[in-house]
Each structure stands twice: as C-alpha cells, then as structure tokens.
Write a structure and sequence with these properties.
By secondary structure, this protein is α/β, with parallel strands linked by helices. The protein contains 19 helices and 21 strands. The strands form six sheets. The protein has an eight-stranded parallel barrel, surrounded by seven helices. A hairpin with an 8-residue loop joins strand 7 and strand 8. The structure holds xanthosine-5'-monophosphate. The site of xanthosine-5'-monophosphate (XMP) has 26 residues, from strand 17. Belongs to the IMPDH/GMPR family. Keywords: CBS domain, Cytoplasm, GMP biosynthesis, Metal-binding, NAD, Oxidoreductase, Potassium, Purine biosynthesis. This is Inosine-5'-monophosphate dehydrogenase.
Length: 496
C-alpha cells in the first residue's frame, strides 16, 4: 500500500509538503508518550524541534527568550550592527523569564515632569547612568509622583530606596510570582551578579505569562543561561561580528545565505571551526545532496534546508532555482544522516501537518518565519487592518528591497553584485497572540500526527521511514481540495 519515501522522491518531481500525504500506521502508545526532543546541531540539544528564523520581523531578544523558555531556540538576525546584535544575545542570556518589558530609566538628578503624565508608565527606575547598565539607586511609582506638588524636584530627593525590590537574574517565573504575592509588589527589578540592573518585570506581565501552558526548564546551556543562536554572513567583516557575538555568549552560529554551497561559505565554516572549535556552526541553505556533501566536508555541525519555499520568498521566480520543500528535506536529510548531521527544515510551514511532514521526512527541527511573525514576541508594533478587521504586524523577506536597504543584501547578493534585485516581499500577518500559547498547542497537534504514524520519537519516525514501513502517496489537486475544509458557505477555522 502506498510508496516508500525512497521510491516516491526519486521520480523526477519536486514535491512540496502539500503534494504528499502519509498513510496512517499502527498506534500502541498514548499521544503524551510522544517525545519530540531533538538536536539543532551536533552539540545543541533541544526539547522541542522548534527554531525561529533569523529575520528582522521574527527574531530579536523577546522571541529568542520565548523560544528558549519553550525548549526550542531562536536565531537572532544580523540586519543590525554587530554591537546591537551582541546586545540582543546578552539580553536573552541575562534573565530566565520570557517576559516583555520596557522600563523607564532616569539619572538621580533628572526631573521627570512629563513621563508619568503623558504615558502609562507605572514606575521609573533611577540608576547612576540613567540606563539599565548600572546599579539601581531607587525608584518612584506613578502614585507617588501624581501626589507631588513640586514636579521640578530631583528624583534623588523623592525616590524610594528599597533593595528588596531586586531579584537575581536566574529567578524563574514561579520565584518571581511568589515574591510579588508575598510582598504585595507591582513589580520587581532583575539584577545581574554584581548588581547591574537587567530589567523590571511587572505583576501584570507575570500574570499574562502564567495564563499560558506551564513552562518547563527550557533550553539552558552549560553556563546555566538560556541558549541562543545568531546569524552572520560570509564577508571579512563578519569575522569581527562573530567575535562580538562570541564575547556576548552566543551558543550557535547560522551562516545565512540563500545558496550556501559557495567558496565563501566553505571558507567561513573552516574559519569558525578553526577559531572557535567549541562553537557549533550551521551551514546552508541547501536543497540538494551534493550541496550538503560539500558543507559537511567543510565541517558544519548542522544544515539548513530550503530555497524559495518560504512564504515571502520569490527566489524560485526570480532566479529559477530551488526545490519543493518536501523533496529537499527528504534528500538532504538522507545524506546528512549518514554523517550524523541534524537538518533544519526552513520555510514553507503553514500548519502543524507541515511540521509533521518535515520531521518525519528526516528533519531534526523546523525553522519558521511567517508562523511566528505577528505574535506578541515578534519585533514591531501592531497596526489595524481595516479591511480584514484584525490587528497585523509587518512580516518581510530578508531579500525584500526594504530589508536589503538596511543591510541584509549579502544573504541574497553575495559579495560583488552592485544592482539590487529583490528575492522577497514585504507584507503583514495577523496577530497570533503569544508564542507561549501558540507553540505548546501546535506541538500537541504534531504529537497527534506522530501517534497516527506509530512514531513515538523523531528517531523512530526516521527509522520507520527508512525501513519503508511508513508509506506515502502524492495527492492530486482534487485530493488536496478534499483534504482541506470544503463545501461550506462559511466556517471559522480555530484550532485551539
Ligand atoms: P516562512 O515560510 O516560514 O519562511 O515564512 C521563512 C524562511 O524564508 C527564507 N527567507 C527568504 N527567502 N527571499 C527568499 O527567497 C526572502 O526575502 C526571504 N526572507 C527569508 C528564510 O530561509 C526564512 O527562514
């Protein structure tokens, strides 16, 4: 019944995830027995196979913190200066709660006047430098300020000095929540060893995060801090960028290129492995076995697969190169498995079923852009789409003219191109709420898919596929229509 993957993917067709379907197998364990723990790269273990893409509308420090808190990992984009990128790494590593915050800092001799009147600012933190990088001297709450007659007074004269408001950087959500409750506080200040202020977390934010499915330990490195990756390019200047990222504590590096099988990337892989032997380096993107073989020979610790399959990509249209993502993932994974190199299936994920397909076809993780864009943790502010009647956030390809104008051009243009041609578009995606809810629910759906296939882990899925026990078929376009919702005049599509 059906075809083994080896036969299906060797007939000269390029299949996307939607083109293929698995035939169900035999269930002899409950959904919760499915274990999706995996590896991002040779030395980076994850408890869920989930990676956020290095795009400037997807992964900055909040997204990377949330990914680590969930047991996945975020890769910080490089469309910023090296020091800004390094600061984002430091921010992820400086605390252990995936909470959004934007405290206001002031120096002791400042007079805040407008701050409390024009904004909804609950408190102001006073530090020597007026920034978060020095010790806390005190704070002033909105209620204290509003009761003051003399608004020209210096903050040092009226601030509260209460060292008990501080908690160490490695406090988790439960510990912070306990303190807020026990001491009846509205916020706590998180500080580093040595006392520099890291952040301030409000009770409101703690309550928001507590409302999502319970978090586990997350992806924690040997330094006890959350793990985080970062993207770099292959120019000479990227070596200096890399040095800053390493100093900031980056755990894994992704060489960000749409066509990774190049002399530039191979030299960069060798440079990274020679200079920082402890640091995992992920190469790509690739879609063929021979591309993969070259990067494996050069020493990569992981491979990123996909060319033109992303939701914002126009590479296949513009450059006439690429591959259907199901075929690419299967082919590259078959080759990489022989050397024990984990594969990231990058792009083209719209549903949980696509994740099941990517993982069963051989990937160790899936990388997502559009699936995570538009979430609370994605960079950027929400706009309101009058036509669609919903909140939206910007999502843009890193090869769009708009992103390349900011510096991401080397991913698409290589070293010498002078005229910029877009390989991506700028768009918007609907508000998805927090990834702290989206990801656990989606993982549950993925586990159900694995259960239907009789696979209790990624390894067992890969074994079933390679032993030809798992069978697939190609779906005709009518079968694809039948496989989606059809025949209704209207419906609401809500998964959880
Ligand atoms: P999804 O489908 O998750 O895809 O939105 C995200 C992936 O798409 C790639 N990417 C691009 N590809 N032009 C391209 O051809 C672009 O402008 C572009 N921007 C991102 C990238 O691999 C990302 O992870």
């Amino acid at each position: 019944d059906g075809f083994p993957a080896e036969k299906l993917f060797n007939q000269g067709y390029s299949y996307t995830y939607d083109d293929v379907i698995f035939l169900p197998h035999y269930i002899d364990f409950p959904t919760d027995a499915v274990n999706l723990s995996t590896k991002l790269s040779r030395n980076v273990p994850l408890s869920i196979p989930w990676v956020s893409s290095p795009m400037d509308t997807v992964t900055e420090s909040y997204m990377a913190s949330a990914m680590a808190a969930l047991g996945g990992i975020g890769i910080i984009h490089s469309n910023v200066t090296p020091s800004e990128q390094a600061d984002m790494i430091r921010s992820v590593k400086s605390r252990r709660v995936p909470i959004l915050s934007s405290p206001v800092f002031k120096a002791p001799d400042s007079r805040i006047v407008d701050e409390f009147d024009s904004n909804d600012v609950p408190f102001v933190l006073v530090t020597q430098s007026g920034t978060q990088k020095t010790k806390l001297l005190g704070y002033i709450a909105r209620s204290d300020w509003l009761g003051l007659k003399d608004k020209e007074i210096k903050l040092e004269e009226i601030m509260r000095t209460d060292a008990n408001v501080c908690v160490p950087w490695d406090y988790d959500l439960g510990q912070i929540d306990d303190k807020l409750k026990k001491e009846g506080r509205d916020f706590v200040v998180v500080e580093k060893e040595g006392g520099e202020v890291v952040d301030a977390l409000t009770k409101e934010e703690v309550d928001r995060v507590k409302g999502y499915p319970k978090l586990g330990k997350g992806t924690v490195g040997s330094d006890g801090r959350w793990m985080v990756g970062a993207a770099i390019g292959t120019r000479e200047s990227d070596k200096e960028r890399l040095e800053q990222l390493v100093k900031a504590g980056v755990d894994v590096i992704v060489l960000d290129s749409s066509q990774g099988n190049s002399v530039y990337q191979i030299e960069m892989i060798k440079y990274v492995k020679r200079t920082y032997p402890e640091l995992d380096v992920i190469g790509g993107n690739v879609v063929t076995m021979s591309q993969a073989q070259n990067l494996i020979k050069a020493g990569v610790d992981g491979l990123r697969v996909g060319m033109g399959s992303g939701s914002i990509c126009t590479t296949q249209e513009v450059c006439a190169v690429g591959r259907g993502q199901a075929t690419a993932v299967y082919k590259v994974s078959s080759m990489a498995a022989q050397s024990g190199i984990p594969v990231i299936a990058d792009g083209g994920i719209s549903f949980s079923g696509h994740i099941v397909k990517a993982l069963v076809l051989g990937a160790s993780t899936v990388m997502m852009g559009s699936f995570l864009a538009g979430s609370t943790e994605a960079p950027g502010a929400y706009d309101y789409d009058e036509k669609k009647k919903c909140r939206v956030k910007k999502y843009r390809g890193m090869g769009s003219l708009e992103a390349m104008a900011k510096g991401s051009d080397q991913r698409y243009l290589g070293d010498t191109a002078k005229l910029k041609i877009a390989q991506g578009v700028v768009g918007a995606v609907a508000d998805k709420g927090s990834v702290l809810k989206l990801v656990p629910y989606t993982m549950q759906a993925v586990k159900q898919g694995f259960q239907d296939l009789g696979a209790s882990s990624l390894q067992s899925a890969h074994d079933l596929l390679r032993s030809k026990t798992l069978r697939l078929e190609v779906r005709t376009s009518a079968a694809q229509v039948e496989g989606g919702v059809h025949g209704l005049t209207s419906h609401e599509k809500k998964a959880f």
